[in-house]
């Protein structure tokens, strides 16, 4: 299980409406993606699962939703104006710009080694505030949601009468002018974060940091990521951000490699101290820049010791988009429903061979596209029996459309895939964009259709889950379509449901088909709601 290549996910996401490249009709805008009808459901479900676990189910957390635009002084005192920079280099040959730490002295585009010296590049998007183009009337689109929490620390404390330890959680958009956005929605310029700032007494920070690392790993497991794909990485002292006492990155095995999904940092009293007035009297442990603008002391008054305390902060900070990518990758599987006979595979094998030869000979294809097509094509050819459905992904890669024999290959592949394979997203039910699809066995039988539609309406009105009616194909095809988008249950209304089948006892029952096992069982319409609720809760 799990996706082998990013192409498999990109292709499925575009084809079925999870994620589209941003502004595509105008040639796109690099580093932006739009979530489609299924993507928005998946993303909302992920955010809801996070909010439920971290805000509703805990007794020590409050939520907020702060503005994206903040007074620019926030970014001066947070340190972002000065330090939110990546060293970058320009290629003197092709003029592309790269992050110095991500290339090894060679331009990934044209392979030239003629690069400029690394220079700092601020990742914040600057934006004009108000109608007058005054050089001082600007701010930035927030590059993280965290600062909205710190500047609201006192508001939340005063309005909720919280005591330490407690946390504030927030989900929202963040913007970074990434130099080299890439790997689909992994590194983008506009993304969402799910962040917690957890405030603790100094001295209790290390214990809480450890607890949060465990907690966050367990949560990612609860949404379906597997332990072997998740790795905690303890940053070395020389890797730590200037404000951090310790940071553990949770790395996930994405199709492009093992990379950061979430960071959990012990930020000491740096943030609250930085945004406070009267810093000298606070006994701060962190080194902060003098603040001459803040109007408040961001402290908690300890009624027992009668002292003002600047709490230490533990920050679990996760990317929503990276979370969505991890869920998709983990859930993705191409499965053989039954083995395809050799005589059906042979023509596909030949057509794939012809396609790859034609790619190899094509002189107009850019070198990078050619290399990627050949590599992916050969990977598939190597284990054709298991990988045959990946040919759809191969054919949607850049350059594939310009190869004439591509159409012939698709013509060979599609019927074999339809008959012997399925692509499945094995999402946990609570994350699946659609929970139940109600399908009529015959779409031109008025009674079957009206019964199916009324089941859909009734189920939809009773639960906070998305339920659809689908009659756009024969039943086998409809099951495959729902498997491919991760719908855990399909309900089929047939002649037995109407009492017109051979077994009169089946009247008023429907077939429930399970996505993962493909098993089918008969359930009374009157029991459906309870049945589905129980299955959904048990994660089956
Ligand atoms: P990286 O080293 O990958 O650039 P980071 O360490 O700068 O990430 P943080 O500042 O710790 O990231 O942000 C917290 C989380 O926000 C990250 O773990 C990631 O999930 C998400 N995130 C950060 N930058 C991006 C981006 N450009 N696109 C998508 N998600 C991002």
From TrEMBL:
A GO term, aspect molecular function: glycine-tRNA ligase activity
Coiled-coil stretches: none
CDD domains named among the record's database cross-references: GlyRS-like_core, GlyRS_anticodon
Enzyme class: ligase
Domain Aminoacyl-transfer RNA synthetases class-II family profile: 7-347
Residues reported in the UniProt entry to bind ATP: 176-178, 186-191, 260-261, 319-322
Compartments where found: Cytoplasm
EC numbers, comma separated: 6.1.1.14
Catalytic activity: tRNA(Gly) + glycine + ATP = glycyl-tRNA(Gly) + AMP + diphosphate
UniProt entry keywords in alphabetical sequence: Aminoacyl-tRNA synthetase, ATP-binding, Cytoplasm, Ligase, Nucleotide-binding, Protein biosynthesis
Subunit record text: Homodimer.
Protein name: Glycine--tRNA ligase
Species whose genome carries this gene: Cystobacter ferrugineus
Native organism taxonomy: Bacteria, Pseudomonadati, Myxococcota, Myxococcia, Myxococcales
């Amino acid at each position: 299980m799990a996706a082998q290549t990013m192409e498999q996910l990109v292709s499925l996401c575009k084809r079925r409406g999870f994620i589209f490249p941003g502004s595509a009709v105008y040639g796109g805008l690099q580093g932006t993606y739009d979530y489609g009808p299924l993507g928005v459901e998946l993303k909302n479900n992920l955010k809801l699962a996070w909010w439920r676990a971290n805000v509703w189910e805990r007794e020590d957390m409050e939520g907020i939703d702060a503005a994206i635009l903040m007074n620019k002084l926030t970014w001066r005192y947070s340190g972002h104006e000065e330090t939110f920079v990546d060293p970058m280099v320009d290629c003197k040959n092709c003029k592309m710009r790269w992050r110095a730490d991500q290339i090894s002295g060679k331009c990934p585009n044209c392979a030239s080694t003629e690069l400029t010296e690394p220079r700092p590049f601020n990742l914040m998007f600057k934006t004009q505030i108000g109608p007058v183009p005054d050089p001082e009337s600007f701010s930035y689109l927030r590059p993280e949601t965290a600062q909205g929490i710190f500047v609201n620390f006192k508001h939340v404390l005063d309005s909720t009468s919280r005591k330490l330890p407690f946390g504030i959680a927030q989900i929202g958009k963040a913007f970074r002018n990434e130099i080299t956005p890439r790997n689909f929605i992994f590194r983008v310029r506009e993304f969402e974060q799910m962040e917690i700032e957890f405030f603790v007494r100094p001295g209790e920070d290390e214990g809480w940091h450890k607890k949060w690392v465990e907690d966050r790993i367990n949560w990612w497991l609860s949404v379906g990521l597997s332990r072997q794909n998740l790795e905690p990485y303890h940053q070395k002292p020389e890797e730590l951000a200037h404000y951090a006492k310790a940071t553990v990155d949770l790395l996930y095995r994405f199709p492009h490699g093992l990379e950061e999904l979430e960071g959990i940092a012990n930020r000491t009293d740096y943030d609250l101290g930085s945004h406070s007035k009267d810093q000298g009297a606070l006994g701060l442990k962190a080194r902060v820049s003098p603040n001459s603008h803040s109007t408040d002391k961001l402290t908690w008054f300890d009624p027992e010791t009668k002292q003002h305390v600047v709490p230490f902060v533990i920050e679990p900070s996760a990317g929503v988009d990276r979370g969505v990518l991890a869920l998709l990758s983990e859930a993705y599987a191409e499965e053989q429903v039954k083995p395809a006979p050799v005589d059906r595979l042979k023509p596909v094998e030949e057509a794939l061979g012809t396609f790859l030869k034609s790619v190899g000979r094509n002189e107009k294809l850019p070198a990078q596209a050619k290399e990627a097509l050949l590599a992916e094509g050969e990977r598939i050819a190597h284990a054709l029996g298991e990988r045959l459905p990946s040919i759809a992904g191969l054919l949607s890669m850049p350059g594939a459309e310009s190869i004439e024999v591509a159409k012939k290959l698709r013509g060979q592949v599609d019927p074999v895939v339809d008959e012997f394979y399925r692509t499945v997203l094995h999402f946990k039910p609570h994350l699946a964009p659609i929970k139940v699809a109600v399908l009529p066995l015959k779409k031109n039988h008025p009674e079957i259709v009206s019964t199916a539609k009324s089941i859909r309406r009734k189920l939809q009105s009773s639960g906070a889950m998305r339920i659809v009616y689908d009659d756009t194909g024969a039943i086998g095809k409809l099951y495959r379509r729902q498997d491919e988008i991760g719908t855990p249950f399909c309900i089929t209304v047939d002649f037995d449901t109407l009492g017109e089948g051979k077994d009169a006892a089946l009247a008023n029952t429907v077939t429930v088909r399970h996505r993962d096992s493909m098993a089918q069982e008969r359930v009374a319409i009157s029991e459906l709601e309870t049945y589905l609720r129980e299955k959904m809760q048990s994660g089956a």
